[in-house]
């Protein structure tokens, strides 16, 4: 568990039948969100709420989407493009989001030029955004959890540098403080943090000297002490921009990137009680029709903007209420594309999506492509994966993974 180790060789599993029965891909009716990565995803009851994100072919998004999840009747699952008013965050990616008292709080991130130092609260009844001053200067690619009324923020990029700052943001009086501790993790970004049993746990990420990390740290939120965990078992190894979520007494880690253009779809579980990692799913080499030349041509297309981000205004025609899910004739949002990537969307659609689905609902046995910059949330006994990218080509797919007792027990 040394942060400077090189990426281990990946395990390729040729027998995928064990995993196929647990995965389902959603085939929803239109409208659906644009492809994106480094967005935020918040689970509020049975609603998955997506904000922002980026696609190199489009830029940074400022749209708000809601997916109603129905494990019993998945044919009823639909996306809704939600209109909210007030002091909305604007285009954001690489931000964090937590849920407190049924409201969503978004902090940090970047619009491609500047890091955001504001905290935004979305009331899901009124659909009104409210803006507060957050930890300043702003950070992106950090981790955040909520404990009691405190939003705990660690690491990320700040002013172009990787940091290990720890900020505490009160969600009751909106006062923030910077916590100075003697022992703490080294600076890192694109790690992932979860809450379990009164502690914040972070895994992986990328260091200030661009090494990928395999460290597991625990922050006790009572005495504010960090501990580097000496774990056992088969861990994810060095990984960044993965997803992490908690179900029962385990943390599930899926996907991520191990070095440049080497994403994975491996999955691991960490049992907090036994301090042991278990390999749940080896890397599955899904047939990829993209040739090396295609990848090179796509990745090396010159951008006409001054950086890889283009701010995007979401143009939506219909305000859809939070409480109603009876169907909609919303118009599909229009997008302003970077002209140097004008053919990229059709290319990606052809490669990764295939023909439109005839039957709506979930398709069993569909396994996600390797990816990073995606999100993972838990609803009931299901992990929900959305978005991410591979070789700088973003996804807008949704996958459900059934979390079994076998996984929870680490067998």
Automatic annotation (TrEMBL):
Keyword check for Isomerase: no
Pfam families reported for this sequence: Kelch_1, Kelch_KLHDC2_KLHL20_DRC7
Keywords, ordered alphabetically: Kelch repeat, Repeat
Keyword tRNA processing annotated: no
Transmembrane intervals: none
SUPFAM superfamilies reported in the protein's UniProt record: Kelch motif (SSF117281)
The protein's name in its UniProt record: Galactose oxidase
Annotated source species: Stentor coeruleus
Lineage per the UniProt record: Eukaryota, Sar, Alveolata, Ciliophora, Postciliodesmatophora
């Amino acid at each position: 568990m040394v942060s400077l180790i090189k990426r281990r060789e990946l395990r390729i599993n040729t027998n995928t039948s064990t995993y196929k029965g647990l995965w389902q891909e959603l085939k929803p009716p239109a409208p659906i969100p644009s492809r994106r990565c480094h967005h935020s995803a918040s689970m509020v009851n049975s609603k998955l709420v997506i904000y922002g994100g980026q696609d190199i072919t489009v830029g940074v998004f400022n749209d708000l989407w809601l997916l109603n999840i129905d494990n019993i009747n998945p044919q009823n699952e639909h996306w809704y493009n939600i209109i909210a008013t007030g002091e909305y965050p604007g285009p954001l990616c690489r931000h964090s989001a937590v849920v407190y008292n049924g409201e969503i709080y978004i902090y940090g991130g970047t619009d491609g030029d500047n890091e955001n130092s504001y905290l935004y609260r979305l009331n899901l009844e009124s659909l009104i955004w409210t803006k507060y001053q957050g930890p300043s200067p702003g950070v992106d690619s950090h981790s955040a959890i909520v404990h009691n009324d405190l939003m705990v923020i660690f690491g990320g990029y700040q002013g172009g540098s990787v940091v290990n700052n720890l900020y505490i943001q009160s969600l009751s009086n909106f006062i923030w403080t910077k916590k100075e501790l003697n022992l703490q993790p080294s600076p890192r970004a694109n790690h992932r943090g979860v809450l379990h049993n009164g502690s914040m746990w972070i895994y992986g990420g990328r260091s200030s000297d661009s090494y990928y990390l395999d460290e597991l740290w625990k922050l006790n939120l009572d005495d504010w002490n960090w501990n580097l965990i000496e774990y056992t078992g088969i861990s994810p190894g060095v990984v960044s921009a993965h997803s992490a979520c908690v179900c029962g007494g385990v943390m599930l880690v899926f996907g991520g990137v191990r070095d440049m253009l080497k994403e994975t779809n491996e999955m691991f579980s960490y049992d907090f009680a036994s301090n042991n990692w278990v390999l749940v799913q080896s890397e599955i080499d899904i047939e990829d029709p993209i040739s090396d030349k295609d990848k090179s041509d796509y990745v090396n297309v010159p951008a006409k903007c001054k950086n890889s981000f283009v701010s995007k205004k979401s143009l939506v025609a219909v305000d859809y209420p939070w409480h109603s899910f009876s169907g909609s004739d919303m118009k599909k949002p229009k997008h302003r594309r970077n002209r140097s990537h004008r053919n990229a969307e059709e290319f990606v659609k052809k490669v990764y999506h295939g023909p439109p689905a005839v039957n709506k609902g979930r398709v069993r046995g569909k396994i996600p492509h390797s990816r990073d910059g995606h999100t993972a949330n838990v609803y009931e006994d299901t992990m929900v994966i959305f978005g991410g990218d591979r070789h700088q080509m973003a996804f807008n797919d949704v996958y459900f993974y059934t979390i079994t007792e076998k996984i929870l027990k680490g067998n």
